[in-house]
Amino acid sequence: MLKKLSGTFAFLIAGTMVQAQAINSKQVFADAERQTRVMLTNVADARANKTELVAPRTLENGHLKLVASRDWTSGFFAGELWMLYAFTKKPEWKTKAEEFTALIEKEKFNGGTHDMGFKIYCSYGTGYQLTKDAAYKDVIIQSAKTLSTRFNPVVGCIRSWDHHKEQWGFPVIIDNMMNLELLFAATRLTGDSAFYKIAVSHANTTMNNHFRPDHSSYHVVDYDTATGKVVKKNTHQGYAHESAWARGQSWGLYGYTMCYRETKDPAYLKQAENIAAFMLHHPNLPADKIPYYDFNAPGIPNEPRDASAAAVLASGLLELSKYSKHKKEYLSVANTILQNLTKSYRSPIGENKGFLLLHSTGSKPHNSEVDVPLNYADYYYLEALLRWKKK
What single string gives the DSSP state of each residue in 187-246? Predict the structure, then answer.
């Protein structure tokens, strides 16, 4: 593992030094190609006798952890392969992307999860943008139909988890904003506005109930399905119920930016800008702009960082900069994040089974996936680099 920079002063120096540098996308993607070839070899070995496992998720005690297609992270690796193809145009990446995308197809009928967007749109959706494959279009549409079955019109939201039924009746998590992109895509592909209306209802209800006056977000909001009223507001992966879980804030910023792109509703643009202001001006955001796992974690500066939250934030800011009057600030912060992820959070080539980024945090309260690589960190890192190149 890479050595962590120690102390606020070290991060201040690192953050200041890299701001003036230019991102060498070509070199970073060349490194990502080399590292992904390492990953493919390790995945092939790990899948040899476990074909039900389809994608790498993280490292557990130094060992590669693969997941089945039902896992919410199963689509990210296929998406990474598509992004390597998008940048390089090399047939090898298209072939591999098609191979790993196909492993997830059966999820289009899995109505037991809200994570259809993460699984299908990050894989099939990314592939469809590049290939216009009609079969991919069909999978996207069916997946949107399946996701729509989780919408409750009384609540106005798509249900998130089915687990922990003793704790929540109808939980909605801020992460679910990311799955709305699949619904918007389905309306574009079919002309059926039903998907669009569900997405807008979910976004509006979440905007009304998930956010505090300072524009930080709760992680989980529980609803009464009989009345549609809020029952309680909690966290599951953050430090405390009233704290600001970092990746959740990034999900919100990215999600409302995407909703503005799809609807041009100025309320969504303002919401994304408000979330950005909370995050970027928070006194606990380090100088290198890589958040601690929670903005209110009590042990700062000795708390785990979350490179995945930073990658999602950078990608979201790059798109938000296209629409907002704060373009200069957003581009500057995104540049700082990408420079510091590249300089101080990447795995050495050939190590860590082929993951690109280190030092992400899955769920600190559960001591799960703390200070490890995570496939969604790698996915949004590559997406942000592609967006930077196109800016």
Answer: HHHH--HHHHHHHHHHHHHHHHHSB-TTS-B-SEEEE-TTT--EEEEE-SSSSSTTS-BH
- Asked if 288 is an active-site residue, the reply is no
Ordered by start, the domain boundaries in the chain are 1-51+284-391, 66-145
Question: What are residue 294's DSSP bridge partners?
Answer: 245
Q: Of 71, 115, 294, 378, which residue is the catalytic one? A: 115
What does the alpha-carbon distance between residue 53 and residue 96 come to, in Å, rounded to a whole number?
16
Per-residue tens of pLDDT for the chain, all 391 residues: 333 333 333 333 334 333 446 789 999 999 999 999 999 999 999 999 888 999 999 999 999 999 999 999 999 999 999 999 999 999 999 999 999 999 999 999 999 999 999 999 999 999 999 999 999 999 999 999 999 999 999 999 999 999 878 889 999 999 999 999 999 999 999 999 999 999 999 999 999 999 999 999 999 999 999 999 999 999 999 999 999 999 999 999 999 999 999 999 999 999 999 999 999 999 999 999 999 999 999 999 999 999 999 999 999 999 999 999 999 999 999 999 999 999 999 999 999 999 999 999 999 999 999 999 999 999 999 999 999 998 7
From 31, 71, 133, 175, active-site residue: 175
Catalytic site includes residue 115: yes
Please check whether the domain covering 1-51+284-391 is classified as CATH 2.40.40.10. no
